[in-house]
Amino acid sequence: MKSFKNHISLVVALVSILFSMQIFMIVDRSISAYKDNLAMNYSLVVVSQKKINTKDLLNKLTSLATIEQLSADKVIKKLNTGISQKNLELLKITLPKFYKFKLKTYPTPSQLKKIKKQLLRYPYITKVETFSNTHDTTYKLLLLFKKVIMVLAITILLVTILLIFKELRIWQFKHNERMNIMGLFGAPTWLRSAVLFRLSIVDALISFAISFVIFSYLAANEWVLNQFANIGISVVVFDKIYDSLIMLSVAILVSILLASFIVLGHKEEV
User: Fold this and answer.
1) CA torsion, points 148, 152, 154, 160, in degrees to nearest 10?
2) Which residues of 240-270 are buried (b: 16+ CB within 10 A; e: fewer)?
């Protein structure tokens, strides 16, 4: 019990770091998945005076994914208020061509302006409707959400660093006497600090194990998966190989740094 109390602060601090790091990764993946979903549903409407060579345009503008010509019948149907069949056929001939352009990725406002400018360089393209007001609002909301999560993660990280430094002082007081005694008996530095490194690695493994269990549960939790399904995206909450390696590496690195600070800050008493 006493040993557990000695290390609970470091374990909690490490779990906090791993938890905030993984949450940020989940949010980043969610935003990327949502942007991909928006890209699939977002399209530009282009008005052209003649039929567009879609293959040539797709080769020249790499940001375009697909080009689909819209049927003029739908437009004429909306305008049909007692117009004779003969006039309808004439209207169909004189109407410009309407196209729906889909993009490979959800663009930023600056990218959208660039795409519009590139399209309008073609003399036969007379209008490009980007729905910029709705697009800009959606994109800014995504960026705002990501920034809020980033600020929250940084805040947790700063608080956690303070906890780690507090734990550092406690460990210094507890192990200085033991290291001094071992030094009097001629023990080398690596042997005196071996226990510290062993304990720090054990704490790192405990923190990793706790985080692994938490996120493995969340990744398989039906309620969590349903929340993503409700907004039409699929997100990897926890990759048991990739995310685990990152978590384990961070936990061990922070713990070893903690032990190193103690060793470097140790002063021999004469």
Assistant:
1) 180
2) eeebbeebbebbbebbeebbeebbeebeeee
Q: Kindly give the parts of the chain with pLDDT less than 70.
A: 1-7, 72-94, 132, 135, 165, 167-195, 262-270
pLDDT digits (tens, 9 = 90+) for 150-162: 888 788 778 777 7
Is beta strand 43-48 parallel, antiparallel or unpaired with respect to 97-103? antiparallel
Task: Tell me what pLDDT residue 6 has.
Answer: 58
Alpha carbon distances (Å) from 177 to 5, 184, 196: 19, 11, 13
What is the residue range of 173's domain?
2-37+137-265
Looking at the DSSP bridge assignments, the partners of residue 99 are 46, 69
175 and 257 inside one domain? yes
pTM metric for this prediction: 0.71
Half-sphere exposure of 210 (CA within 13 A, CB side): 18
Q: Distance (Å, rounded) from C-alpha 24 to C-alpha 230?
A: 20
Q: How many CB atoms lie within 10 A of CB 67?
A: 19
> Does a structural domain hold residue 81?
yes
Say yes or no: 26 and 61 in one domain.
no
In 3D space, the residue among 181, 251, 241 whose CA is nearest the CA of residue 211 turns out to be 251
